[in-house]
Structures are given as C-alpha cells and as structure tokens.
Amino acid sequence: MNEEQLSKRLEKVASYITNNERIADIGSDHAYLPCFAIKNKTASFAIAGEVVDGPFKSAQKQVRSLGLTEQIDVRKGNGLAIIEKEDAIDTIVIAGMGGTLIRTILEEGATKLSGVSKLILQPNIATWQLREWSEKNNWLITSEAILREDNKIYEIIVLEPSEKPVVWTKQEVFFGPCLIKEQSAIFKSKWHHEAKTWQNIIQTISSNQPISDENQAKIRELEHKIALVEDVLK
Ligand code: SAM
After folding, report:
1. Which of 174, 144, 182, 181 is nearest to 160 (CA)?
2. Average pLDDT over residues 99-128
3. What is the pLDDT of residues 53-64, one digit of tens each?
4. CATH number of the domain that 99 lies in?
5. Ligand 1 centroid distance, CA of 10 (Å)
C-alpha cells in the first residue's frame, strides 16, 4: 500500500471524500489517506493527526517526501485535540481502530465537531458503538459500506449532522440502517458467521454443568443476539 495504491478498505474510505474538502485524518499512521486525497484533489487541505511517535514520524516523512507540506499538516496529539477552529475542517476521518476507541475520540473531542459536516468512520469492530453515539448526538448515517479484504470484513459509516432527532431501532444500531436494507452477500456472510460463533460458545458453556448464574446470563444474551440475526436475515 502507498499513497497511490491504497488498500481496498482505505480506498473505499477515501471515496467518501469528494469535493475539495478540508479533512482531518485522526490516527493517520503513514498519512497515506491524506496524501491520496490531496493528490486526487478531493481534499484541498488535510491534517494528519497521530498520538504515537513512530507513526507520527512516518507520516511526517511521507508528506515531506511527496512535497505536500503546504497542503498537509502533520500534528502530534490525542484525537480531535489537534484540530483548531481556524482549520475550518469539513470532514473528519477516523479509520482502522476499534469502535469503542473511535467513540471515545468523538466524545472527548465533542467541542471540535461544530462546523464539521461529515464524519467518515471505519471501525474494525463494534460499529454499533458509533451508531449508538450517532443517535445520542444527532448525527444521521447517510451511507454505510461493508467489504472484505484479506479475509477480514470491514464496515464504514458516513455521518452528517442532523437538525431533527436521530432515532434508530435496536436492529439498525446493531446491523446498520443502510446495510440492513442492502442485505449484501458479505453482510449475510458476516452475520451467519457471528451467529455460528455464538452458537458454539453456547454449546461450550452449556457442556459445563452445572451452569453458573453468570454463564446463564451470557447464554441468554447470546441467544438474544442470535434471534436478532435470524430475524434480520430471514
Ligand atoms: N488510519 C490508518 C488506517 O486506517 O490504515 C491507520 C490505522 S492504525 C491501525 C491506527 C492508528 O491510530 C495508529 O497509528 C495509532 O497510533 C493511532 N491512534 C490511536 N489512538 C489515537 C488517538 N487517540 N489519537 C490519534 N491517533 C491515535
């Protein structure tokens, strides 16, 4: 992967940056995404944010080597703290981390979201955390994607601020309002696989008699999740 040939996952993330946008890529690692967006002119300005020294230096090196220091500012810091009002950022990208961490970054940086018109989020796990966050903070999910790369399945969600209250059903939070409607082959395969894994866990727990109260609660929770999957996939 490099700034010209992104991974399939990052390419899909980048496809949602469309129109001369001012972007902040939080957790930018090698800054491939901002370099790609600037080179393809979908972004006019970018901040590459990194909290860890190694990836921060890699991002600096990459941006310098491409001669893009005028358009891409590499900043070291935690989450959205590196964004200033004067940056006039339209779009924030947070990709390649867990949903819980992305949610924490959004919660801790809540004041930095005013004026932002788009969030492009690619959690590696627990996307439901971000859908729940979107409902609590009135961000509408305008697009979702699901794709497979190197035998892993990734979800991407795109959000825009909403004037009206955002309300999701339990199923929409868990599976994604757009992904449920689309019911793609990858979506079905992901949830079949998850349900099978939960079924196996139930069998393992149940074979250990007597079943403790804690394990009984776990079984009930997993059975509930399997029922949700069966209901959505039927
Ligand atoms: N965004 C790139 C991608 O999707 O390929 C890199 C993903 S990499 C797995 C996650 C990066 O996020 C790491 O470089 C890590 O140092 C950075 N990171 C984790 N927590 C962060 C935070 N709170 N603020 C900024 N960067 C963070």
Report:
1. 144
2. 98
3. 999 999 999 999
4. 3.40.50.150
5. 13
Distance CA 80, CA 92 (A): 9
Task: Dump pLDDT digits (tens) for 153-200.
Answer: 999 999 999 999 999 999 999 999 999 999 999 999 999 999 999 999
Tell me the CA–centroid distance for residue 180 and ligand 1, in Å. Answer: 28
Paired sense of beta strands 72-76 and 91-97, if any: unpaired
Q: Which of 35, 52, 103 to mutate to test the pocket of ligand 1 (most atoms within 8 A of CB)?
A: 52
In terms of domains, do 194 and 164 share one?
no
The pTM of the whole model exceeds 0.70: yes
Nearest CA to ligand 1 atom 24: 79
- Ligand 1 contacts CB of residue 31 (under 6 A): no
Does ligand 1 have an atom closer than 6 angstroms to the CB of 34?
no
Q: Do 80 and 190 belong to one domain?
A: no
> Of the candidates 140, 72, 81, which has an alpha carbon nearest to the alpha carbon of residue 106?
81
Ligand 1 pocket, 82 CB below 6 A? no
Q: Is there a single domain that holds both residue 30 and residue 119?
A: yes
CB-based burial label for 7 (10 Å; 0-12, 13-18, 19+): middle
- Domain that includes residue 120, residue range: 8-168
Write the CATH number for 218.
1.10.287.1890
| pLDDT, tens digit, 9 for 90 and up, residues 61-82 | 999 999 999 999 999 999 999 9
Q: In this predicted structure, what is the pLDDT of residue 133?
A: 98
Going by alpha carbons, the residue nearest to atom 7 of ligand 1 is: 96
Do 210 and 102 share a structural domain? no
As for how many domains the chain has, the answer is: 2
